[in-house]
Design goal:
Largest sheet: 4 strands, antiparallel
Strand content: 5-15%
Radius of gyration: 26 Å
Shape: elongated
Distance between the termini: 45 Å
Oligomer: single chain
Number of helices: 6
Strand order of the largest sheet: 1-2-4-3
Length: 190
């Protein structure tokens, strides 16, 4: 939760089937899919969260600030709806009345979004502790650095244009020095 909004996990969906007669086939399919997928199979944690304005917003802030917060939440919905990327949460739905739901108060308009299972800080820590991932990353950097040094050494010693693949396959490594690559606390020779 933030200064202007609350975010809660959705533990279960109980869709109102009487509303489905007014929905498109795609909207009905989406509701059924979300009901089937309300929890992750492996962790049993909720897949989705609901985000709405804080109910105390009208008491703590002016009407203008409330209107700005409402506008920000509606803009967030539009922004998320326009993005399709595996590393960005997806907007799964909004309140049935759309932005008209604000007429029912701060909880009248809400977003249904993917629930985050970890923070960015937690993910970075997990990556840092994953030695195999670090080694793969170091190996990738090492290969790229070696290829670049081979090209530079080749050109420095009067070599013409030569493909880096030919240099690596030709084993022309006599012209480059060792260097160290620092990944986290670990140094890797390249």
């Amino acid at each position: 939760s933030g200064e202007f909004s609350h975010v809660y996990e959705i533990k279960s969906f109980q869709p109102d089937v009487s509303l489905e007669e007014n929905l498109s086939h795609e909207e009905v399919e989406t509701r059924q899919h979300m009901k089937r997928r309300e929890r992750y199979h492996d962790t049993k944690k909720a897949c989705y969260a609901v985000k709405h304005l804080r109910p105390t917003l009208l008491e703590k802030y002016s009407k203008l600030e409330y209107a700005q917060s409402a506008s920000d939440l509606a803009n967030e919905a539009e922004f998320l709806a326009s993005l399709q990327h595996p590393n960005i949460i997806k907007l799964r739905g909004i309140s049935f009345l759309g932005a008209g739901g604000f007429a029912n108060g701060p909880k009248g308009y809400f977003l249904i979004i993917d629930r985050l299972n970890e923070t960015l800080e937690m993910r970075i820590k997990r990556w840092k502790n994953n030695k195999r991932r670090r080694n793969r990353l170091a190996s990738s950097f090492k290969t790229k650095i070696e290829n670049k040094k081979l090209l530079l050494a080749h050109h420095a010693h009067g070599g013409g244009r030569k493909d880096s693949k030919e240099l690596v396959e030709g084993n022309n490594k006599e012209h480059h020095d060792k260097c160290k690559l620092l990944i986290g606390e670990e140094q890797v020779d390249v």
